[in-house]
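Researcher: Going back to the complex we discussed earlier. I've cleaned up the inputs and rechecked each line, so this should be the final set. Can you rerun the prediction on the complete assembly and write out the structure?
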Amino acid sequence: MALSLGFHIIFAVIGIGMPALMVLAERKWLKTGDPVWLDLAKRWSKGTAILFAVGAVSGTVLSFELGLLWPKFMEYAGPIIGMPFSLEGFAFFTEAIFLGIYLYGWTKLSSRAHWWAGVAVAVSGTVSGIFVVFANAWMNAPTGFEIVNGKPTNIDPIAAMLNPAAFHQTLHMTIAAFATTGIAVAGIHAWMLRKNPRDHFHRSALHIALLVAIPASLLQPLSGDISAKFVAKWQPAKLAAMEGQFETERGAPLRIGGIPNETTRETKYALEIPKALSFLAFADLNAEVKGLDAFPEEEWPPVAITHFAFQIMIGLGSLMMLACLWVLLLWWRKREVAESRPLLTFLALLTPAGFIAVEAGWIVTEVGRQPWIVYGFMRTKDALTPMPGLVIPLVGISLLYLFLGVVVVYLLHAQIFKTKPMTEEMRTP
Amino acid sequence: MTLAYLLAGVTMVALNAYVLLGGADFGAGVWDLLARGPRAARQRAAIEQGIGPIWEANHVWVILVVVLLFTCFPPVYAHLSVALHIPISVMLVGIVLRGSAFTFRAYDSTNSPVQKYWGRIFSISSTITPVVLGVCVGSLVSGALALPVNASFAATYVMPWLTPFAFAVGFLTLAVFAFLAAVYLTVEVKEPELQEDFRRMALGAAVAVGICAGAALFLGRASKLGVTEALLTRAWAVPFQLFTAATAITTIVALLRRRYALARLAAGAQVSALMWGWAGAQFPALVPGVHTIESAAAPFITLKLVSLGLLGGAVVLVPSLWYLFRVFKSDTLSAFERVDTAEYRGPKH
Ligand code: HDD
Ligand code: HEM
Ligand code: HEM
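Model: Rerun complete. Updated structure for the full complex:
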């Protein structure tokens, strides 16, 4: 399950981010008539088509897998959080319908209608992401029901959907999708520009990608701070694990790096910024931060994994933000970005950064919630299917995904770089 | 609790739509596998053209079914996921391979032998997946999914679906999907030669549907299944049989006389009749012997909100779907016309 999600999320992120890039490029084409924008929109849309199909089938696997692996969880949670999933179903419909129209409709629609079809894809992709994350947020902050005799009763699906974690998680996730896609696309084209910084095609691509990446990457740490404040309040054990905080203390330091050791109960070799954690989590330098010692050990999430994953997300987030600030600085001083080789190299290196940060962030959220599947209500082990021999599907699915991943990379490479329908005069302005 | 019945009906409508639309896309893959002779390449091109723009939208119907099931009838979803773990897993692999291989083939610009392999994977998984889907349905209706307590692994997870009846329903499903695909394709292609090809395929598949349905009915009666008894004895059994027979005959006659639009309509009606016959025979049980619509329904408030959500969703969905099919299915789809984005009508400057 975690594996399928980890696989699916990559395509989901692209499914949210890429349509926005396509639509922006096509918009430029409609406005300026410069064929380079059209070329961009078309190539991006081909890539999106491949990625979307894999996203759609891996999503289908998920919707069955929830039951295949966690039948008890779904029986328990279905009536409570089925609502966002049902709405998501409609968002998928809209997305799939308009993507079909967009991809196959270049010659069949007026250019304006075609552009609007792209907008519909972008909007419904974002909305479908938001709906699923609603469901996940409920697992972190279960509301909208009461437990009577061990059964959920007095269900209020609306309250469950609008649970306290819903806002920050959907915000953080949606921004993450745009930041990730923007940075990744910028990185790829920055890499190409290193060979020829005047290439019109890649400069245009970089332009659009940065248009999306910059606002998203700058906002992401802010929205992450909102998330962290929530976690501090609602899931103190998760926060403690994220930070490697074993002891409850006032004026807790923020640890950067470090290796938490669950047996000796210390986090060694970390760079500590005094009182910063108390401040970030509670906006008060001397606030008390609960350590893991406040919880019985069987309720600890795996500390090291959560801590490392959190450090990775923050680290990459900071680098992405830095890259965007650098771009802004160059633009402000010189009105020229693509001439700076170090910046291009930096961007190119950051290509996978967003995806890694997204995976890491989900590990923080999900592993940090353990041992609970529904925080405070249901333990993960109680939700598992009675079916024995689950390694077999696990290995099978891993191999299948590995295979699909390799193929996708190969095809994208062939699709975006190998085909050269562009004439030379288009390449040099 | 009438709302629960209504939602069970809506779930069935969604499944019906999946069979008519998504099912035909699988069926098209079967014909891709079976394409032979001098026009094989053109047949394949027509198939690719026919399903390319719409298969992803058609596929979402099954997601809707799953989502409705776990929201409105969560115990049924949980129960089926446990009892049918193995066939569902196989079906998922089939769904993944079918969808990705189709897309990979369409976008593999290298025209290499690799592209042929994608075609193969696409068509083979299109053929296996419907059988497994049918096996799931077959074992459900046969009432064998009561999950024995403390039974062996085989008795719990394998025997319920490893029955002749379940496989008869599996092959029936395959035949139905292929039949629908061939009938639709007769309408969509305009070259007379291809039309003749697909007409022949449709007639062949119609015979296969008949044989498989007969076999399923026979096996069902032989093992005294409640469903087959109900199909033959309930109050609506006779009008139902008459209606199914009438649609079947209409389809065949229309195909013989090359009235393709009529054939398409009748084929859709015939397949829907089969499905609603199953639904009626099983009613009100959802998992025979375990769950009924009433016993499995989620709390009223959930059902109410889902119904509202469905209404709201339909407002978005219906015009969008209408638009999709209008754009791609209204005009002549010539088998050669590959979508060439280069002809995109740009803005006038
Ligand atoms: C581009 C990706 C990305 C980047 C750069 C960041 N994050 Fe993040 N983060 C995610 C992508 C992500 C995510 C994968 O999207 C998560 C997982 C669950 C969620 O809602 O968002 C997440 C979760 C997540 C959580 C846990 C929320 C919960 O469990 O409810 C916290 C506290 C933060 N993030 C905080 C931050 C901070 C302070 C960042 C500052 C740099 C940051 N994130 C950058
Ligand atoms: C795409 C991002 C996600 C990733 C990478 C991810 C990954 C994970 C991981 C690593 C675990 C913990 C496994 C363990 O320690 O035992 C987990 C648990 C779980 N997650 Fe997620 N998750 C994601 C999103 C979601 C969403 C959106 C849902 C539901 C709507 C969900 C449902 C679950 C469930 C039911 C569990 C408990 C079972 C388990 O431990 O595997 N997850 N997930
Ligand atoms: C971590 C959270 C998730 C996000 C942000 C997300 C987002 C998305 C997006 C944007 C798409 C569009 C398709 C694409 O771009 O490839 C998609 C597809 C899909 N997702 Fe997810 N998803 C998540 C988790 C899940 C889970 C837990 C399920 C299972 C219930 C699921 C089920 C699906 C399905 C069925 C599709 C295919 C829809 C289609 O055919 O168009 N997703 N998802």
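Model: Worth noting: The pocket of HDD (ligand 1) is lined by residues A 140, 165, 169, 172-173, 176, 179-180, 220-221, 224-225, 227-228, 231, 313-314, 316-318, 320, 354, 357-358, 361-362, 364-365, 368 (CB under 6 Å).
Researcher: Good, that matches what I expected from the previous run.
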